Amino acid sequence: MIRMSTESTEVAIALLSNKEIDRAAALMASAFANDPLVNYLLPKAQNRLDVIRWFWQEALQRNHQYGHSYTTAPGFWGVASWLPPGVPRETIWTLWPLVLQGWLQTGWQSSYRLLSLLECAEKLRDRYCSKPHWCLDGLAVAPESQGKGIGGLLLQPALALADQEGKACCLYTSTEGAVRFYQRLGFVVCEEIRLQREAPPLWLMVRSPKVS
């Protein structure tokens, strides 16, 4: 457990436990409910929160084995989940069971858009991060706790490891506010894409390791 301080309180950053995954997925759903890319992928609003929560339950459960998903204590204010270097890359075929479940819950349009997003995202990673690197799979801070520095603290354990190892970090984000947040942490925009003309932008950002 790592203890750090925001402007107003001391926060402990701890590994996310398996029993906290459901709670973390609900927090992710709350934080991403109004994300423009999520709204594009899930245009039907009536079950959006349930689908986002289900997606993050699957993702966090899969990521848990790699040991780099973090949360805060004593309050459960945020979650950051990383894929470390060496983790096998997901493909359409390895993700097919997830996509099939998604199709049953959301219909063909959302599943097609998700498949297109995954394909584009992997091409960008190949283009800008061909060497082993850290990938931020997701970061969320509870809406009522945003603006207090918690998001930055949640990222520090993996960023420090990346610097020690001399490895780059990459992520995707879909809001200009998030782009500015990650830029303050040393990430730079490599490319902006849109899946379709009416789709919101998606930015791939990469952070080079800091040399001490």
Number of strands: 8
| CATH superfamily heading | Gcn5-related N-acetyltransferase (GNAT)
User: What order do the strands of the largest sheet run in, or round the barrel if closed?
Assistant: 1-2-3-4-5-6-8-7
What is the helix tally?
A: 7
* Secondary-structure arrangement, i.e. CATH architecture: 3-Layer(aba) Sandwich
Radius of gyration (Å): 17 Å
Binned, the helix content reads 40-55%
User: Mind describing the biggest β-sheet?
Assistant: 8 strands, mixed
At CATH level 3, the topology is Aminopeptidase
Task: Quote the average pLDDT.
Answer: 86
Structural class: alpha+beta
Content of β-strand: 15-25%
CATH class term: Alpha Beta
**Total domain modules:** 1
From the N-terminal CA to the C-terminal CA, the straight-line distance is: 24 Å
Form type: globular
Low-confidence stretches: none
Q: What series of H and E elements makes up the topology?
A: EEHHHEEHHEHEHEE
Q: What's this, in brief?
A:
With 212 residues, this protein is an alpha+beta fold.
Main attributes of the structure:
Aminopeptidase, 22% strand, 7 helices, eight-stranded mixed sheet, 212 residues, alpha+beta
Description:
This protein is of the alpha+beta class and about 210 residues long. The protein has one domain: 3-Layer(aba) Sandwich (Aminopeptidase), CATH 3.40.630. It is about 45% helix and about 20% strand. Strands 1-2-3-4-5-6-8-7 form an eight-stranded mixed β-sheet, with helices on both faces. Helix 1 crosses helix 3 and helix 4 packs antiparallel against helix 5.
